[in-house]
Amino acid sequence: MDIKELQNIEVSAKILTEILGFKNSNYLPELVKDHGFIRSAHGKYPLLKNIQRFITYQEELHQVDVKKIREGNSRSRLDHAQAELKELELKEKQNELGPVAEFELAMKNEVSLFVKMFNSLGTQLRYDLNLSPEQNDIIQNKIDNFLKHYASLPADTNSESVAF
Fold first, then answer.
1. How many CB atoms lie within 10 A of CB 118?
2. 73-87 tens-digit pLDDT
3. Coil, helix or strand for 64?
4. Angle CA(105)–CA(106)–CA(112) in degrees, nearest 5?
5. CB 39 within 8 A of CB 45
6. What count of Cα atoms within 13 Å lies in the side-chain half-sphere of residue 41?
7. Residue 98: closest CA among 82, 158, 107
8. Where do the domains of the chain lie?
9. pLDDT given at position 115
């Protein structure tokens, strides 16, 4: 049997629905009307053309499903991002969050205070412990070395990875 003989085969709605795997032959008129399936005469359907159309139709349905999934993923990501923004806005209104510049300024002040207090430690110990000038120089050198090391640490250093 060649392709020309296959093109001439016409089948009933019942046989075509069985071949295509539909459970109900009442679905076939909808496919003809809305989805480009072919009916040559009342109750007769060209088998080869409708099988080819069925394959194309399945590909179209697949593309629609893929598009819905992609849109759903995009919409889901957008919804998630908008929800996060709303959470941040709420926390800011509840004074749980503030501008980064204010936080940075507060941290700089804290670090500056720490460095000044640490620097004054050498002077305080000299008088509190009645240290000799040599002992005071040793303590001051240790403090200076610590501060130099502290200043050279990157901002994102994990405290557990630092050794003095």
1. 14
2. 777 777 888 888 888
3. helix
4. 90
5. yes
6. 5
7. 107
8. 1-97, 100-161
9. 82
